[in-house]
Amino acid sequence: MANVVFNVALGRVAHLASLPAANDGLVLIPLEASGLETDAVLRDKDDFAAVVAGATNEQTTVGRKPLTGVTVTVDDTNDRVNIDAADVTWTAPTGNPVGAVAICYDPDTTAGTDADLIPLTKHDVSWSPDGNNFSLAIADFYRSSSTA
Q1: Do residues 13 and 83 touch, judged by C-beta distance below 8 A?
Q2: Of the ranges 55-59, 75-79, 113-117, which one carries the lowest mean pLDDT score?
Q3: Closest CA to 16 of 65, 66, 83
Q4: How far are the Cα atoms of 11, 48, 101 from residue 43, in angstroms, in the given order?
Q5: Count of CB atoms within 10 A of residue 130's CB?
Q6: Among 44, 78, 111, 127, whose Cα sits 20 to 30 Å from the Cα of 133?
Q7: Rounded Cα distance, 35 and 99, in Å
Q8: Distances in Å between the alpha carbon of 116 and those of 11, 16, 123?
Q9: Alpha helix (H) ranges present in the chain?
Q10: Cα–Cα distance for residue pair 142/85, rounded to 1 Å
Q11: Are 99 and 36 in contact, with CB atoms under 8 Å apart?
């Protein structure tokens, strides 16, 4: 599950994850371990361009991954919403160590810029791409509940 939900996404993750538009989707973006800003700093970033405008850098050699198999499930028993996605695999990745991944909403997967990407969640990951295939298991990357 998420270590951080970006302030701009509070209350919006389930809605954005369930949108049925033809050219939108969720994208998983690896962040370099070196220079990774604190959760307190990152949660205030309103788009992905802002996420990487400070000391935090995208780990570009492994590449971004579109999330597939995204499901939004209302769990009435536990009074929450769960969001899941298919696991992600990188084939023969190399490059700088990864310290986290961010899941962003991309309103137009055919065009756009990092300023268009809305950061939703950040997940701590410790991974050194060494040329061996790497799979990231995703199980309910986000849960939201409320109490009255």
Answers
A1: yes
A2: 75-79
A3: 83
A4: 14, 11, 13
A5: 11
A6: 111
A7: 9
A8: 19, 13, 20
A9: 13-17, 39-42, 48-51
A10: 10
A11: yes
- For the stretch 7-48, pLDDT in tens is 555 567 777 777 766 788 899 999 999 999 999 999 999 999
Q: Tokens 């973006």 — which residue?
A: 29
Calpha distance 122→125 (Å, rounded):
9
pLDDT surpasses 50 at 123:
yes
Whose tokens are 């065009």? That residue is: 111
Give the Cα separation of 147 and 144 in Å (integer): 10
Q: Which of 19-23, 24-28, 86-90, 137-141 has the lowest mean pLDDT?
A: 19-23
- In this structure, what token pair is assigned to residue 28? 């998983």
Two structure tokens written together for 60 = 């570009």
Residue 148: per-residue pLDDT: 46
Amino acid code (one letter) for 69: G
For residue 12, what are its two tokens?
């919006």
Taking alpha carbons only, the member of 88, 95, 93, 89 closest to residue 33 is 95
Max Cα–Cα distance, the chain, nearest Å: 49
Mean pLDDT (whole number) for 94-116? 94
